[in-house]
Amino acid sequence: MNDALDQRALESVTTIGREFYKGAVFGIRTSDRPELLEDAYGQDVYQIILITEGSVILSDGDEKTALLPPQLACLSYANPMKKLEIAGAKGFSIFFIPKVINYGLFNSFPQAAGEGSGQDDALLAERLLIKPFKQGEISNPFHIAVNPALEERVTDMYRGLRDQFSLQPNEFWPCRGRSYFLELLMLLQNLYAFEGDTDLKLALPTGDELAEQAVRQMLLSYSDSRLKCSSLRGETGRFAFSARFRTAAGMPCKEYLKSIRLTVAANLMRNTMLPPTDIAERTGYADRARFERDFRKRFGKKPAEYRADFPNPYG
């Protein structure tokens, strides 16, 4: 854990192992309501809030804005933040510190990842996961309106995380819980990119609403092995859709969907100890052999060999 983190802030964002990994400390905590951590201001603490009912008031000087539900917000307690007033709102909160993503990588994080090696690329990928929480072009907190499909997807990830960390049903609870958390961070990163950030390995299509909508749907549904490009084109003809998507995204729709799935799979291989069979299923691969082939073609190694190149995510 971060020794410099104030003890009160640390306690408010941690989960303690009970029967399995008794006494072990994990820098992530869930809450079934939107709430703020008064003791965390100025600390290296981050928070995800989903507001499903009521409203949250954002104050920036004399200006006030109501975030009407459903709304998703990413907060950084380490940076200047607009004042938030939460009253009568329903939803949930996830609190975490960066090291929970991967303790090994964050223990020796350079100021800027280098280029050229798989580890360098992974360092950059892990840093990108917290970009929506860093104050920059988009103010703190970063927030977006949520459509029903996105709300359902985010809520499912939250429930998976919450149930594993609260119930701790078996020895796999930290790994399975963090896998839901990592998927949620990757989804937020891509949503953030649609809002104007472009520092991503996978180029996002711009200038074609049909292609943008198709990619948004991929980001929500990549875990469904039944998802096909044919289901993303609506009333547009197959050839017209294929041409428009390739022009906007720089690659065919099928390859783009595969890239999303393999990007998520690589993240889960680096930052969890989930078996490759579980990761294949979580990323929309019904066929384990095809997952292995695609992964090796993309990253030059089998999933287990790829994992061995990175530090133990639990430190």
TrEMBL record:
<dbReference type="Pfam" id="PF12833">
    <property type="entry name" value="HTH_18"/>
</dbReference>
<keyword id="KW-0805">Transcription regulation</keyword>
<dbReference type="InterPro" id="IPR009057">
    <property type="entry name" value="Homeodomain-like_sf"/>
</dbReference>
<dbReference type="GO" id="GO:0043565">
    <property type="term" value="F:sequence-specific DNA binding"/>
</dbReference>
<dbReference type="GO" id="GO:0003700">
    <property type="term" value="F:DNA-binding transcription factor activity"/>
</dbReference>
<dbReference type="InterPro" id="IPR018060">
    <property type="entry name" value="HTH_AraC"/>
</dbReference>
<dbReference type="InterPro" id="IPR050204">
    <property type="entry name" value="AraC_XylS_family_regulators"/>
</dbReference>
<feature type="domain" description="HTH araC/xylS-type">
    <location>
        <begin position="241"/>
        <end position="309"/>
    </location>
</feature>
<keyword id="KW-0804">Transcription</keyword>
<protein>
    <submittedName>
        <fullName>Helix-turn-helix transcriptional regulator</fullName>
    </submittedName>
</protein>
<dbReference type="InterPro" id="IPR020449">
    <property type="entry name" value="Tscrpt_reg_AraC-type_HTH"/>
</dbReference>
<keyword id="KW-0238">DNA-binding</keyword>
